[in-house]
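hi!! sorry for the late reply, been swamped w classes. u asked for the two structures so here they r. pasted raw, havent cleaned anything up. first the sequence of the first protein and right below it the tokens
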Amino acid sequence: MTSRSDLRGALRAYRLWRTHPDIVFTQSIDAHVIGHGVALRARAPHVAAEHGGAGIHRGTHRTLAARLVAPRVARVVAVSRSQLPDLRGLGYREERVRVIPNGLPPLRPVRDRSEVRRELGLADDDVAAVLVAVLRPEKRADRFVDGVARAHSFDPRVRGIVVGGGPLLDEIQAQALAADSGVTVLGQRTDVPELIAAADVVCVTSDVEGLPMSVLEAMALARPIVATDVGGLREIVIPGRTGSLISAADATALSEELLRLASDPARRTAMGEEALRRFNEQYTLERMVDGYVALFSELLDGTVRLA
């Protein structure tokens, strides 16, 4: 489907029932609606994946569509326990929810950290914080720019890097250029692992989150995390061990934490090492796949009702 009103695309998708699937797996509300029709016609269990953070805004259309499908799916996959109240509110049955956190394979940057830092204009003693996100309102990249700018005014070694495109890209670029913020906005990039490895801290400044991939990438690359205390972030960031959780309502919290980390390289290293250890225990690709294998096996044993 090229858009929600693409009826030809919707019909092509619906005709997938002719492949006689054993399971129909969907992500995003339009896919949930059409996928449920496919599942009913094929008499196959329907699994819906919901990756949105707790409190994420849904328009009227999306809310009504979700409430139509939610009570009828065989299973729904969440990436964080923080999503459970929202999922119940949409009508998903609690006993059908399975929490399977995202996972990643090992990340191996192909370019040297020092080379990437030189390209970014970072000095050896600069402390670089990076934000990787699609620049939508809920990601609050403006909060990141403000926090870095405040820290940079106290300690010029603190620098910021924004990675990602999106509807607010021009606005965030203008904000970063408006003053001596110490923030560079790179836009969309394909070398995210290299950029994270070149940084010293990874930040998430969102108002709403499920389980952001940038945090898992930070952990896989042994980087400490500074994140707002929202959604699933409190499940993966352990304050004082793998990073820090800050209040979204505290305008100075980010800058204060960046200044603390800038003055304590040993603490940054220790947090990064603990983050990597926790990643290897809980957030590998293999662990995620095991979760889906268990779920699909449960559905294929023939005892699940297709209600």
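now the second protein. again sequence first, tokens right under
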Amino acid sequence: MKAAVIGGGLAGITAAIALARAGDEVTLLEAKPRLGGATMSFTRDGLVVDTGQHVFLRCCTAYRGLLDRLGMTAHAPVQPRFDVTVVAPARRARMRRARVPAPLHMLPALLGYPFLSLAERSRISRAALAFKRLREEDPATDEIRLGDWLAARGQDERTRRVLWDLFSVSSLNVPGDDAALSLAAVVVKTGLLGDADAADIGVPALSLGELHGAAAARLLGKLGATVRLQTKVAAIEPKGDSGFLIRLGAGDGPAADDILLVDAVVLAVPHDQAARLIPPGALPAQTVDGWAGLGAAPIVNVHVIYDRPVMDVPFAAAVDSPVQWVFDRTRISGMHARGDNGQYLAISLSAADEYVNMTVAELRDKFVAALAELFPAARDATVTEFFVTRERRATFRQVPGTARLRPQAATALAGLVLAGSWTDTGWPDTMEGAVRSGLSAVIALRKGTGPTVKQVDPVSELNNSRELTPTEEREVRS
């Protein structure tokens, strides 16, 4: 089968690898000069800079399976157990899971959380138990705001800001109170209330460009796939029983004004681009028009380089501060290789509507001062470099009512499927969701191409030479 995968983010990479491993003739088309989508890197004054700081959890089985296939598992280590330093002005705490079975594993960390009063801590279990009973797949659950639901279960403003927001804002990229309850339930039930080790955090030890884009290009080359960068797709035209004609637009690369004829297409681009490219008849017009309702939510990353070390942990979450999460990127960036003995910190700001249009000077005034409040050593250090990266359309806006707008992988046109973390993966718009969507797209493609085409087992695709837990296998099978 000749297959075109349009879009070189994690969804497209995943689909292209799965198809190529099955022996198909694959062409991956990407408009940018490198693979990786929202998880790319660039160089700036001798530094390797990621477009955004990304982490994952041990429960992200599909994403970890992709790392296995890319040969990158060793470069994305996972904590032995969940362990997060939480900092505030003049105060810090450590949240660490206990070595006991779920669901008791998080209880000591929550009951000893010093940023809440004893009365507030005592009410946390009420919400946790209510999360366990939620049916996140129920359409009614998706119509409820997380903040309203938590407040009705005794979680006051303070508790929502300094506890629940730590997990929901970074996962869902919307203010905590505004998030869809259905997606928040996936985060809490899978990560915090699932298996005892589910929330253990993985932080890449390589730049995202190396971890994803460069590794994917190498693997796809070994599998015989063709990767065409700087190649824009202008149109997808069904050709009856003979597949699809892909018109390539006037991009910057050698593929300008070219044409491809393929048997199958995986459309793995953001929802606004997919709406422009999907051919008539693939889905009802009102469905495609409805994708606009998914909207877009920004992420801003603030990069601060000091002349000396100021933070003594690899990453930290912050409360009572405009800082949300901050990461030490000194080693990954190659900063010391250029002869600089300072420290490079990156602040990741999710749900960043209030920051995305601020000037660099305004952001510098705000966040250099905020870091000095959190880390006393920063008060005497000199900021040698300061810059900002902005992802204006980092994710769709994961608010109530969006579940019904997220499409399945299959379309009405046999041979045309959708992928992307915005599609109906059952997960939030994350790296895990993106990889799951790529696998779902290939599975849907196989189901629609007849019995003579080699079938793909979703469990074996996620497994990739490691055993899934019984819980994971039941989830994938369902």
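hope this helps!! also noticed smth abt the second:
The chain has three domains: 2-39+207-294+400-477, 95-192, 297-395.
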